[in-house]
Design brief:
The complex is a heterodimer of chains A (114) and B (112). With 114 residues, chain A is mostly beta strands. Chain A contains no helices and 12 strands. Chain A is 0% helix and 54% strand. Classes of the chains: A mainly beta (114), B mainly beta (112). The interface between A and B is medium-sized, with 26 and 29 residues.
């Protein structure tokens, strides 16, 4: 089964600065999708961004971008111009195509300092 | 616009009791899943389904059963609750394998 690794248990960033949250994955399957979710202290899971393994360009959604390096099997989330409301847990996830087996990393807790 | 609805939101069980966590979605999604979230461990996949009548095991299926008789509903059954099953449970659904999963609000389960 695929494996997702998030090596940063916690990160701090100054308000208005950019931050990168790391995610590496391991699979031998060439067809997969990568997802990032945000979980604020209220507990809900909020979808942020998606990257397909065959996508030629890195995904972007507003202040979120995904730095996809296929050869290194990494899918780092970049948040630009951090806001206080970005303080939350962030999870990287991976799902093989034609499959609903979606696995999550352990998460990174981001704290934005004023 | 209900999305994914989980019931109950909170539950306390005694060891050995059984119960069913309900999950319903109104988006006509084929893909549905159950996860549990424990501190420091992210979300772990319990069971998943790719359509009515089709289910499969995830990472941590022991002690749980599922069935998928309709597209809308995907209940999770705890057969004989154990303290190790104390967790927050999330149900999720998605339209396709390349689309995001929509999550319910979660069920906080405590087994004493």
């Amino acid at each position: 089964a695929q494996k997702i690794t998030q090596t940063q248990p916690g990160m701090f960033v100054q308000e208005k600065e950019a931050v990168t949250l790391d995610c590496t994955y391991d699979t031998s399957d060439p067809s997969y999708g990568l997802f990032w979710y945000k979980q604020p202290s209220s507990g809900e899971m909020i979808f942020l961004i998606y990257q397909g393994s065959y996508d030629q360009q890195n995904a972007t959604e507003g202040r979120y971008s995904l730095n996809f390096q296929k050869a290194r099997k990494s899918a780092n989330l970049v948040i630009s111009a951090s806001q206080l409301g970005d303080s939350a847990m962030y999870f990287c996830a991976m799902r093989l195509l034609n499959n609903n087996d979606m696995r999550f990393g352990a998460g990174t807790r981001l704290t934005v300092k004023p | 616009n209900a999305g994914v609805t989980q019931t109950p939101k909170f539950q306390v069980l005694k060891t050995g009791q059984s119960m069913t966590l309900q999950c319903a979605q109104d988006m006509n999604h084929e893909y549905m899943s159950w996860y549990r979230q424990d501190p420091g461990m992210g979300l772990r996949l319990i069971h998943y389904s790719v359509g009515a009548g089709i289910t499969d095991q995830g990472e941590v299926p022991n002690g749980y059963n599922v069935s998928r008789s309709t597209t809308e509903d995907f209940p999770l059954r705890l057969l004989s609750a154990a303290p190790s099953q104390t967790s927050v449970y999330f149900c999720a659904s998605s339209y396709e394998d390349y689309t995001e999963a929509f999550f319910g609000q979660g069920t906080r389960l405590t087994v004493v």
